[in-house]
Amino acid sequence: MRWGALGLPQPMPYKVGVPRPRPGRAEKMKHLQTLRRLIAAHVDARLQRRGEGQTEADPADGDLLEMMLAAGDANARLSTQEVLDNCMLLFGEGFDTSASALTWWIGLMATHPEVMAELRREVDTAYAENLDLAAMARLPLLNATIKEAMRVYPPSTALFTRVAKRDLEIGGTTVRRGTLVVAPIWQMHRNERYFANPESFDPRRFLPDAPAIPRGAFMPFGAGPRFCLGQQFASVEIALIAAQLVRHFELKLDLGEQLPQPFVDLALKPKTPMKIRFLRRNRA
Ligand code: HEM
C-alpha cells in the first residue's frame, strides 16, 4: 500500500525557528478545554467520594485513577494537577493507540484460527497454573501475536516525526536542515529486506528463539530519546486484555467478510466496521 493510500498528510515544509501557521488551533484548544473539564469533573467527583470515605464498595476501587490517588506516602503524593495531567495523557496518547492495537489483533486472530488454537493452549495452561498477572503478560506466543499484529498494522504509523537539525543525506536523498521527516513505520514494517513475506501474519518472527530483528526495523513505539513513554503500560494492558479474550471467547469473522482496509485517523483504524463474532467458549 502506498503512503497516500493510508490517508497520511503530505510532509509540510518546515523551517527551524520560524513559527508555522496553525490553522484550526483555536478550535483545537476549545476541544482540549472541553476534554479537560470532563476529566476534571471525574477526578473531582472521585476526590469528593474519597473525602466522604465511600470508596469501599465501589466498582471503581482499584482502577487507575484510584491507584494514582493512592500512590506515594505521607511525604510525597501526586498533586491533583499531576493526577489530572496523567489522566489527560492516558486519554490523549494511550486510548486510541491501544484500542487500535487490540482491534487489529482481534481481526487477525479471527482470521488465523490455527494461531488462535495454539494461543488458546498457552493461555489455558497459564490459567491452570495460576500464573500471576505479571507472568501472564509475558507469555511468549501471546506477546508474539501482539507484536506481529502491531507490525502488520502499526497503531501510530503517522506519529513518528523528526526535524532535521542539520543538512544530511539519507539513502542518497539530501535532507535540508529544518525539514520535517516522517519515519515511515508502515513501510519499514512491510519491507521484505527486514521481514520475509512481510504481508503475511506470522507471529513466529517474534518468538524468543526466532532470529533477531534488525535494529530499527520494528518500531511501533518509535525510537530514540522521544520513544513512547507508555510502551510498558500499553504492552501489559494489551496482553492482559488479549489473554482474557482468548480465555473466554472464540473470535470469528462474519461469513464472507474480509478484514477492512486501514486508514490513518491519528491512530490506524478500520475504514469500514470490522464485524467480528465473539462466541463464548465452552470449557470442559
Ligand atoms: C499500542 C499503544 C501505543 C503505541 C503504538 C504508541 C506509539 C507511540 C509512538 C510511535 C510515539 C512517537 C515516538 C517517537 O517519536 O519516537 C509515541 C509517543 C508517546 N507516547 Fe505512545 N503509544 C502507545 C501507547 C501509549 C500510552 C498508553 C501512553 C501513556 C500512558 C503513551 C504515551 C506517549 C507519550 C507521552 C509520547 C511522547 C513521548 C515524547 O515525545 O517524548 N503512549 N507513542
Attribute tags:
single chain; 284 residues; mainly alpha; two-stranded antiparallel ribbon; 9 helices; globular; binds protoporphyrin IX containing FE
Oligomer type = single chain
Order of helices and strands: HHHHHHHEEEEHHEEEE
Low-confidence stretches: none
How many helices? The count is 9
Q: Into which percent range does the helicity of residues fall? A: 40-55%
Task: Label the overall shape.
Answer: globular
What is the CATH architecture descriptor of the largest domain?
Orthogonal Bundle
Question: What is the top-level CATH class of the largest domain?
Answer: Mainly Alpha
Taking the alpha carbons of the first and last residues, their distance comes to 44 Å
Query: What amount of the residues lies in strands?
Result: 5-15%
Task: Explain what the structure shows.
There is one protein chain. The chain is mainly alpha-helical and 284 residues long. The protein has 2 domains: 21-93, no CATH class; 95-284, Cytochrome p450, CATH 1.10.630.10. It is built from 9 helices and 8 strands. It has helices at residues 25-51, 64-70, 80-94, 96-111, 113-128, 133-136, 140-152, 185-189, 231-248, and strands at residues 161-163, 168-170, 173-175, 180-182, 249-253, 262-265, 267-270, 276-280. The strands form 4 sheets. It has a two-stranded antiparallel ribbon. It starts with 24 loop residues before the first helix and ends with a strand. Residues 89-90, 93-94, 97-98, 101, 155-156, 159-160, 220-224, 226-230, 233-234 line the site of protoporphyrin IX containing FE (HEM).
